[in-house]
Amino acid sequence: MSAGLSTSGVTSTHLFAGGCGDMVGFAGAGFEPQFAANHMAAAIDTVRRNFPAVRYERCDINNLDFRHIPRTRVLVGSPICKEVAPAGGNSTASQKPVTGQAPAADGRAPAPAWSRTRATAWDLIRANEVHDYDMVCGENVPDFVTRWALFEAWANVWDAMGFNGQIVSVDAAHISGPGNMAAPQHRHRVLFVFTRKGLPLPDLQVRPDCLCVECGPVQGVQVWAKRFAEPGVREAGTYDKQYRYACPNTRCGRRVEPVTLAIGDHIDLTLPGRSFGAGRRDRKKFTPYAQETRRKVAIGLQRYPGQPFLVVLRNHCTVQSLDEPIGAITAEGNHHMLVKPGPTVDDCEVQMISLHTKARAQRFPDGHVFEGTTAADLTRQVGNAVPVNVAHWLAQRVLPSLN
């Protein structure tokens, strides 16, 4: 933890530490991280580099013996989300147990089924059985709540263990506070907080800075679609689909849009690229870009004449301005191509956004060092991390309940 940070004396354990996004956020809010665990060697090296006083263990957390780690007041853990995210290609039906699965051709055990990889959520309960934390919190995709068939059972276990549960939906582009700027990235997630019964519940209402055409600057109020008022339906979803923000003034109540930050402020436009017509840089011999990519560049030239823009290399996406937050940074691949316009598509100068830009989109400070020997190691750490501003906001909100 950086020198000069004031601390609250409240200690924390961080499972699934990854690139240390939650550790940086919690430390910045005054927590004292004591222990971190992850299965990746590069991630543990990142912990050692940035938090040299923190104990750590590289392990499969499914097999971690929690009796051998220090007891802290708070457990922070964001279980893997790929298997339940839309990008994971999983449906509710895919969560059913698979019986009679044959071994792989080389004789090894088959790849873990959905239920096996999802087991990391239960590891938080295993840890709490040993250490009886005052609070357990973390982050996941909204589908963790809405599509995981065992979510209600998982939440009920926390109730049986003596905890009150809270769920809040956030977009990293809307989360900020004193000394904590929002991320220039739209990243839709849910935060879960389980607080030991008897302690006050933290205030987890999201109130982003908004501009109302009638009332001026306001802090918006989350408003959910009507179906979420039905009994038993949890408020979990994504901005502009399941919820929006409204002016808090009762005489107004009109829809308001949160103030956001531009990704363009974190992109170095002076770095040289490569002409689109020269083909893909990651191929040894000339390979042209896909026709769909060419189509998207053409759309950008028409939509943003004379201005650099981003091509989003994802299905159902095209282009976006540098004056808005970037789409979610992921743990695998690079989906954002910077385009500097030219007279034709082939004359445009293109390059994929840098790791530095991705880290800034996740609100990592420039002094944070990611360890690793491969691009995949670095990309996974940045993409899997909890955005620092979101972790900082969460830590600030839960701290009063622990003092």
Write the layout of secondary structure elements.
Layout: E1 11-15, H1 21-28, E2 32-38, H2 41-50, E3 55-58, E4 74-77, H3 114-117, H4 120-131, E5 135-140, H5 143-146, H6 151-160, E6 163-171, E7 188-196, E8 209-212, E9 216-219, E10 221-224, E11 243-246, E12 255-258, E13 274-275, H7 291-303, E14 309-312, E15 319-321, E16 336-340, E17 349-352, H8 355-361, H9 375-384, H10 388-398
Parallel strand pairs: 1-2, 1-4, 2-3, 4-5
Antiparallel strand pairs: 5-7, 6-7, 8-9, 8-12, 10-11, 11-12, 13-17, 14-15, 14-16, 16-17
Structural overview:
With 403 residues, the chain is α+β, with helices and mostly antiparallel strands. It is 22% helix and 20% strand. The protein is built from ten helices and 17 strands. Residues 97-104 and 106-118 have low confidence and may be disordered.
